[in-house]
């Protein structure tokens, strides 16, 4: 069995959504000063790096992180490569033969510099959600910061995924993941009343 880490590193240089809380880690206690341990402090957005969106992120009456079904984020997953496509539509997805896929991860390679927040990236047309629900998808994962157009305020893709009971995993690093079938593990922290959570996402190959 091979493990592929598909989460982005989080460090003080990690780019965040413009205007959001930057990631900051520092040691508050050092072993030299305390005499026993190093202890760090984190300040960060809940949408830093590789993260899940709880529906509460964009719909105030919807589920929060601590209310999510963890089985959504663990289990069989399919990785597909869809480079050079600005808008991911149902038509584009139908080319891949995705039937009986519960967790779909899409490598677009449209975030080309991991040290800079992208100004443009691939995003979903709302018609993709109804098709993905039809074939049984419960989780959609992408290698970009959002499933929606960068400057969108209405977030049509987010809302269409929610309407079709599909949950969202964003900011993956799929650069080492070939197309194919895997086991995904991408568990959110148990953040009570949270709108999102960073995850350590991995893929495991099948024997």
Describe the protein's architecture and organization.
The protein has 207 residues and is of the alpha/beta class. The protein has a single domain (3-204), classed as Putative cyclase (Glucose Oxidase, domain 1). Helix content is 12%, strand content 26%. Strand 9, helix 4 and strand 10 form a beta-alpha-beta unit. The chain is globular and about 60 Å long. One of its GO terms (biological process) is L-tryptophan catabolic process to kynurenine. Its EC number is 3.5.1.9. Zn(2+) 2 binds at residues 53, 158, 170. Belongs to the Cyclase 1 superfamily. KynB family.
Name the features.
globular; 12% helix; 26% strand; Glucose Oxidase, domain 1; alpha/beta; 13 strands; 207 residues; two-stranded antiparallel sheet; single chain; 4 helices
Summary?
The protein is 12% helix and 26% strand. It is α/β, with parallel strands linked by helices and 207 residues long. The protein has one domain: Glucose Oxidase, domain 1 (3-Layer(bba) Sandwich), CATH 3.50.30.
Shape: globular
CATH class category: Alpha Beta
The CATH level-2 architecture is identified as 3-Layer(bba) Sandwich
β-strand percent reads 25-35%
**How much is the average pLDDT?**
97
Our Rg estimate from Cα atoms comes to: 17 Å
- The number of helical runs is 4
Number of strands: 13
CATH fold category name: Glucose Oxidase, domain 1
Which stretches are poorly predicted, pLDDT < 50 over at least 5 residues? none
The CATH superfamily is known as Putative cyclase
The helix-and-strand class reads alpha/beta
Spatial order of the strands forming the largest sheet = 1-13-11-5-7-9-10-4-12
Compressed to H and E, one letter per element, the order equals: EEHEEEEHEEHEHEEEE
Q: State the domain count.
A: 1
Helical fraction equals 10-25%
Main sheet summary: 9 strands, mixed
């Amino acid at each position: 069995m091979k493990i592929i880490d598909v989460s982005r590193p989080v460090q003080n240089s990690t780019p965040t959504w413009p205007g959001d809380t930057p990631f900051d880690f520092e040691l508050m206690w050092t072993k030299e000063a305390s005499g026993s341990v190093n202890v760090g402090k984190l300040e960060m957005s809940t949408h830093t790096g590789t993260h899940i969106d709880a529906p509460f992120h964009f719909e105030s009456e919807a589920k929060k992180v601590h209310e999510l079904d963890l089985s959504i984020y663990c289990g069989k997953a399919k990785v597909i490569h869809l480079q050079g496509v600005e808008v991911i539509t149902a038509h584009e997805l139908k080319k891949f033969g995705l039937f009986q896929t519960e967790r779909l991860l899409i490598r677009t390679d449209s975030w080309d510099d991991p040290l800079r927040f992208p100004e443009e990236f691939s995003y979903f047309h709302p018609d993709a959600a109804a098709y993905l629900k039809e074939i049984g998808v419960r989780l959609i994962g992408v290698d970009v910061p959002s499933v929606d157009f960068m400057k969108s305020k209405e977030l049509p893709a987010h809302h269409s995924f929610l309407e079709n009971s599909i949950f969202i995993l964003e900011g993956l690093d799929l650069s080492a993941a070939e197309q194919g079938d895997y086991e995904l593990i991408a568990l959110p922290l148990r953040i009570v009343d949270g709108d999102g959570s960073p995850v350590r996402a991995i893929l495991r190959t099948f024997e």
